[in-house]
Amino acid sequence: MAKRRPSGDGTIRKRADGRWEGRVIIGHKDNGSPIFKCVFGKTQKELLSKMHSALEEYRDVDLSEDSNMSLGDWLDRWLKEYAAPTLRPNTIRGYERTVENHIRSELGDKPIRFITTADVQKLYNNAKKNGRKISRWKYGTELSDSMVRGIHMLLHEIMEAALKAHLISKNPTEGTTVPKCNYPPKKILNDAQLDKFMEAIKNEPLWHDFFYTEMTTGLRRGEICGLKWSDLDEATGLLKVQRSVGANCEIGETKTETGTRTILLPPSTLHILKERQKTAMTEWIFPSLLTPENPVAPSAAYQRLKVILKGAGLPDIRFHDLRHTSATHALTSGVDAKTLSGILGHTNASFTLDTYTHVTTDMQKNAAGIVGEFVEEIFGLKGAANEQEA
Known about the structure:
- With 390 residues, the chain is mainly alpha-helical.
- The protein has helices spanning 44-57, 71-83, 89-107, 117-130, 145-164, 191-200, 208-217, 221-225, 267-277, 298-312, 320-332, 337-344, 349-355, 357-389; strands spanning 10-14, 20-28, 34-41, 232-233, 238-241, 244-245, 251-252, 261-264.
- It has a 3-stranded antiparallel sheet.
- The protein is elongated, with a radius of gyration of 30 Å.
């Protein structure tokens, strides 16, 4: 086997055409022979400047022979070997769409080790301006800032894996300018609207229990669809949340590790489920209306929600906004963030507080008012007492 010279080592020579050429060892093939990066300059001084930059870039870097593969080939490998074994099928499908629609089409043919930060920035800019394949009345062909940020986060993870696999010398997504997440304000049902919604579901014999449970637990859509009777302990009122139903009705794990949790049901919800279980004919608490051996499809729940909202003259909100509504009313009713975090399956209480800043800000104002009145009362009493002594 050929003797290895350290990566970052380089040589220079003057070519017959008068230009200066430098070669820097940036890695080694499987048989031990070196992989070179060549740089050129019209003068020796220009070349030495380029050589210095190349030596710094590849210092302590030892790329593998696979560093010559295209980004497209690496995308295929990453999806198959890195993503598929650990992620849910629905998540994989989302990644595949992002890869095909925004990443492969821009940079798929380029060798992975030649992709620069400028290449990645151009990808983001193009995605922002023309990333939507079908023009929509609200956005046209532009992608939202959050979607562009999603592309960045995925590509960053893909290139970070390439870095660890010795395919690139640095992650080209570093140093790019990425839009901040400008999520639209959360839509929730206010007190009057919530009362109206709860009245409306009373006229939904097939869906009442489903939406009542949702409003009193704040479960994610896939989580409530995936509940089984074996998850319910009637004696204690405890409900285990340990699976989720995906968009195509595949059964998978909860969104996060903390999503697998046990919650205590409100007495009214427990009573409804106990009554429901008396006539249950399937393992699912909320089975499909057409195929009871399967869980209710998340899409069916979404579509029914839209019908109920329209019929009741309520705002057109997303299913996830029912979760926001439940959490918001829990906080304003005095449920502490730590407890609510456990109920919702959030990673920690700080995430819950960050998610519901609009609520906690109002709560802080109320608390400040209460404390202010309390202090004023104390000082007022003390002032009166002092005047009497005088």
